[in-house]
Amino acid sequence: MTDNRLDGNAAGGALREVFAVDLTAATGQCSNCAQSLALAESHLYTHAPGLVGRCPGCDAVLFRLVRGPGRAWLDMRGVTCLQFALPGAT
């Protein structure tokens, strides 16, 4: 049996392409109530140590974004799947 596994660095190009898009236009599904929505439709709270996006249907946390000097942390565990158009795609 051969090992077809690569290390995570092999995903570098694909991840760079993915994170070059406007994610507010992306559609996702709330992991709590299964509502489908664009991230732009989330209720955004800014009075925290970052941004917190909540589901407009059930108020569950969809995502958290915290920025620090030279880095950022993105937690999207409240979204089961995210769909978005890639730049230059027709």
Automatic annotation (TrEMBL):
InterPro entries documented for this protein: DUF6510
Lineage, broadest ranks: Bacteria, Bacillati, Actinomycetota, Actinomycetes, Streptosporangiales
One of the Pfam families matching this protein, by short name: DUF6510
Name of the protein in question: Uncharacterized protein
